[in-house]
Structure formats: structure tokens, C-alpha cells
């Protein structure tokens, strides 16, 4: 019997998009097990996984084949993926990126894991994340750093850096991530991918509901807009007890990629939300080129003031510190926490209950004003990051956690704005530097308008396709 990739001419399986792999499974050209075996055989040289689960993936794939394709199966049925190591997975080591949990094995899986399993997507392992998903780089003490395959001396970003590195290096076709301040869009920019943070409440946080502020949400990392939309169709939906929810779409999100967005009003700004940040020329060029492209596509692009005031940053930091303090180490293992985590936790513990409540209320007021200021516009355009991917270790500073945190803010001065407002936002790989580093641009839409955002993103991708652009060398 010929190897499955030989059926695709010059293309091997990981060259296919996730949707093309799903089509191949549906047509009987390849089995879920053949896909699992193909990806399991690929070496992880980018720090993508903390824990691999190849045998469990094989078992799941065999079960899928024996049971047969359900009549209501989605287009990604039988396509492998991975689970970010912040999501408890029954019987599988789940470290939360922390040495304090290096031997923790949950007894139950959270809602996202169960959703992915029910969709017929075998998981090849737990994708790497920094401790508790806090930093914007992925350098956990329990695994090697996650690096971008475009230059393995540079970070894959964070906190979904492992998921992004895996998709960019062809170790997974598509992967879920999570995003509380940019943790999907940052690695998407660093790894040359599409990274979609959906609206607040679009994807359930059950059963833990670990973020009482409402900043964080799961989302998708993919090579194409259509793949990102298809995985959003898998993940989206309410569960009983959800504190936030978004109204259901009018049709599958994948269908939105086939609709013309119409003529849109695009607001744009480039001044960082966080003051005193130097913006690299490549980020400016990417933003300017994207502006021209949107105009060429028939949209009206207008400059607007920064809609989030500087004082919102302090409120965000207060909430971020308290959220970090809500992730303690097991008793007796506090010394295994990273200096940054201990520093942020100490800041969080110093916040009183009324101070925390006031910070949440202030953030919501800032969000309301921003949404009102942007209400006349269909989408908002900014750079994703202030610079190309940083070198591994360049942002991290264990000796000075305050400096570490300042470095992160300077790297990501726009992304957290849309976590505050709850707007869906997507990073698109529209630019590369002269030395081959990816630089993303970011589009955000009104809350619950993922369909419009995906329609526009698909139009942009059709105009300047990037799917055939591959990292150099060993990941071919």
C-alpha cells in the first residue's frame, strides 16, 4: 500500500490545510489514524509540546474509524489537533506551564477538551504555554522554549506559543489557544499564522470559569482564515451557567468566509495604547500596507484617536495581578513558581476586594466608551505587535520581574484593548521582514460580529494569499 501522502502528488499531508485534510478523511483518501501517524512521526524541534499523547490519539482515531463518520460530523472530523496545557485533560499530565504542577494529572477534562474530543479531533498532546499562561512569551520551566520556525532563535510568542509553533511547523494542522491579553494573536504574528480571539462569551469557559473579569477566551490558530473559522465552529457555543455569552451566528462561521463583506468603514490607529512604546518600522509598514490593501478592496479607511485611555492600563494591570494570584501553587511548592508569577501574585494579594471591584468597573467603563467611540465603524485596524519576534530570553528577566513585565507591555501595546472591550480580533500574516520574519496586522470588529470579521479576513487572504508561504528548511 502506498504512503497516504503519495496520493497527493508533490504535496505531503501537512501541506494540506486542515479543511483539505478533513475532505480527504470524508472521501476515504486517508484515515484519521493515518493522519495521526503522519503527525506523530514529525519531530518537535520548536518546543511545541509539553506532553505528547500519541497513543491516546491513535486510540481515539481507531475508535472514530470503527464507529464510522456520524451524519452530523463537521468538516474537521478525523483531523488531529492539540490541547493547550492550561486545559485540564483527564488522565493526562497537565502542568499549566508550571514546575509547581509538573506531576499533576487531572481526573476530569474541562469543557473545551470534551468539545474537541466530541468533534472527532484526536489530540496529539498538550501544547506548550508559559506559567499559568501569563507571559507573552512561552518559556516554561517544564519544557524547552517554544520558538517560531521562521527563526528558531526567536520566540513563538505566548501564551499559546506551543500551539502556534506546532501549526506553523506542520506538527498540527490547526489548534485551539486562549487569549486574555493577546495570547492567540501574539504567537500568530510571531509564527506567520491566522490567530482569532472571538467575542467574550462566544466559547464557554465551563466548568472552571477561572476568569471573573471576562478578559480571557479560547480561540483558534490556523494557517488559513477558513481553517480558523472551521475550528471556531467546533469550539463555539454556550453551556448552562456561563456568565457571558454571545448570540449564535446566522450560519456556520465557515460560511462567512464565502460571503462578500460589502463596503466597510475601517477605523485605524497606530499610536500604542500603552504610552512610550517605540514601534518598529516593520510594524508600521505592515499596518500601512494593510491600510492600502483595504482601500484597494473598496473599503473606507479613516484615522481615529486611540479609543482606550492610558489610565485603563493601570486597571488592566490590577486585574491581571489578581488573576495571577488566583492560580496558586500546591502547598509546599510555592518555591517552584517563577519570579514573575510570584511578583504578580504579590501585587494581586495586595489588592483589596473593593479595589478589585473598582478596577473591574473602571475597565468596563473604558470598554463602554471605546465601543461607543468605534460604533460607527465596522472594523478597526492596528498592528498586532510593536516589533518582529523577540529573541528567546530577550523579554524574560527573572532577576527583575518588574522589568520583565515592562518588556512584555512594550512588545504588545495593542492586543489587550480588545480583551477589555470583548470585541473579536484577528491577526493576519500580511507582512514579512527582509530577513524573513513574520509581522502580523490586527483587525477587530464589534462584539459578536465574528461573521463580518471572518468575511473581511477571507477577502484579504484571497487578495494576498499566504498559505503557500512556508518556514525555511527542516519543516518542509
Written account of the structure:
This is Amidase. The chain has a single domain, classed as Amidase signature (AS) enzymes, CATH 3.90.1300. About 35% of the residues lie in helices and about 10% in strands. It is globular. Helix 2 runs antiparallel to helix 3. Strands 4-6-5-10-11-9-7-8 form an 8-stranded mixed sheet, with helices on both faces. A 3-stranded mixed sheet has the order 1-3-2, with helices on both faces. It is an alpha/beta fold and about 475 residues long.
Fold topology:
Elements: H1 18-26, H2 32-40, E1 49-52, H3 54-67, E2 81-84, H4 111-118, E3 123-127, H5 161-168, E4 174-179, H6 185-191, E5 194-197, E6 217-222, H7 225-235, H8 253-256, E7 265-268, H9 281-296, E8 300-303, H10 311-325, H11 339-349, H12 353-373, E9 379-383, H13 401-411, H14 416-421, E10 425-432, E11 438-445, H15 450-463
Parallel strand pairs: 2-3, 7-8, 7-9
Antiparallel strand pairs: 1-3, 4-6, 5-6, 5-10, 9-11, 10-11
CATH superfamily: Amidase signature (AS) domain
Morphology call? globular
As a percent range, the share of helical residues equals 25-40%
Number of helices, counting only DSSP H or I runs of 4 residues or more: 15
Distance between the termini: 24 Å
| CATH topology type | Amidase signature (AS) enzymes
Class by SSE composition: alpha/beta
Q: What is the residue-averaged pLDDT? A: 96
Low-pLDDT residue intervals, each spanning 5 or more residues: none
Radius of gyration: 21 Å
Looking across the biggest beta sheet, what order are the strands in?
4-6-5-10-11-9-7-8
Just name the CATH architecture. Alpha-Beta Complex
Number of domains: 1
Protein name: Amidase
GO molecular function, one term: catalytic activity
Domain Amidase: 35-454
Organism: Nocardioides zhouii
Amino acid at each position: 500500500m502506498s504512503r497516504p501522502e503519495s496520493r497527493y502528488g508533490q504535496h505531503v499531508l501537512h501541506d494540506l490545510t486542515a479543511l483539505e485534510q478533513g475532505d480527504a478523511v470524508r472521501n476515504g483518501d486517508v484515515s484519521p489514524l493515518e493522519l495521526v501517524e503522519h503527525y506523530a512521526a514529525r519531530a518537535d524541534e520548536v518546543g511545541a509540546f509539553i506532553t505528547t499523547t500519541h497513543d491516546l490519539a491513535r486510540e481515539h482515531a481507531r475508535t472514530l474509524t470503527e464507529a464510522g463518520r456520524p451524519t452530523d460530523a463537521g468538516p474537521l472530523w478525523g483531523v488531529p489537533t492539540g490541547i493547550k496545557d492550561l486545559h485540564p485533560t483527564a488522565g493526562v499530565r497537565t502542568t499549566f506551564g508550571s514546575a509547581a504542577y509538573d506531576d499533576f494529572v487531572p481526573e476530569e477534562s474541562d469543557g473545551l477538551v470534551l468539545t474537541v474530543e466530541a468533534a472527532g479531533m484526536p489530540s496529539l498532546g498538550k501544547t506548550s504555554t508559559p506559567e499559568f499562561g501569563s507571559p507573552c512569551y512561552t518559556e516554561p520551566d517544564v519544557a524547552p522554549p517554544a520558538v517560531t520556525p521562521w527563526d528558531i532563535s526567536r520566540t513563538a510568542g505566548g501564551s499559546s506559543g506551543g500551539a502556534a509553533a506546532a501549526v506553523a511547523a506542520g506538527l498540527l494542522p490547526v489548534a485551539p489557544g486562549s487569549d486574555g491579553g493577546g495570547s492567540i494573536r501574539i504567537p500568530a504574528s510571531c509564527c506567520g499564522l491566522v490567530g482569532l480571539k472571538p467575542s467574550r462569551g462566544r466559547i464557554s469557559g465551563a466548568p472552571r470559569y477561572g476568569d471573573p473579569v471576562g478578559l480571557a477566551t479560547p480561540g483558534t490558530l490556523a494557517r488559513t482564515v477558513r481553517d480558523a473559522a472551521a475550528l471556531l465552529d467546533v469550539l463555539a457555543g454556550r453551556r448552562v451557567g456561563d456568565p457571558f455569552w454571545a448570540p449564535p451566528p446566522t450560519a456556520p462561521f465557515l460560511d462567512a468566509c464565502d460571503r462578500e463583506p460589502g463596503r466597510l468603514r475601517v477605523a485605524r490607529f497606530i499610536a500604542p495604547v500603552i504610552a512610550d512604546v517605540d514601534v518598529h518600522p516593520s510594524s508600521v509598514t505592515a499596518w500601512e500596507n494593510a491600510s492600502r490593501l483595504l482601500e484597494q478592496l473598496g473599503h473606507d479607511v479613516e484615522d481615529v484617536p486611540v479609543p482606550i485611555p492610558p489610565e485603563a492600563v493601570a486597571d488592566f494591570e490590577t486585574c491581571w495581578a489578581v488573576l495571577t494570584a488566583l492560580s496558586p501553587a500546591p502547598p509546599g511548592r510555592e518555591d517552584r513558581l517563577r519570579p514573575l508569577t510570584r511578583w504578580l501574585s504579590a501585587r494581586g494579594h495586595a489588592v483589596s476586594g473593593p479595589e478589585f471591584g473598582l478596577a473591574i468597573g473602571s475597565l468596563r467603563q473604558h470598554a463602554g466608551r471605546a465601543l461607543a467611540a468605534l460604533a460607527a465603524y465596522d472594523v478597526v485596524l492596528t498592528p498586532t505587535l510593536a516589533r518582529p519576534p523577540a529573541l528567546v530570553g530577550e523579554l524574560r528577566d527573572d532577576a527583575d520581574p518588574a522589568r520583565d513585565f515592562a518588556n512584555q507591555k512594550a512588545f504588545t501595546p495593542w492586543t489587550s484593548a480588545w480583551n477589555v472591550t470583548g470585541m473579536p480580533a484577528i491577526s493576519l500574516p500580511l507582512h514579512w521582514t527582509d530577513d524573513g520574519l513574520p509581522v502580523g496586522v490586527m483587525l477587530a470588529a464589534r462584539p459578536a460580529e465574528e461573521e463580518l470579521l471572518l468575511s473581511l479576513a477571507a477577502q484579504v487572504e484571497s487578495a494576498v494569499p499566504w498559505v503557500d508561504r512556508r518556514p525555511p528548511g527542516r519543516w518542509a
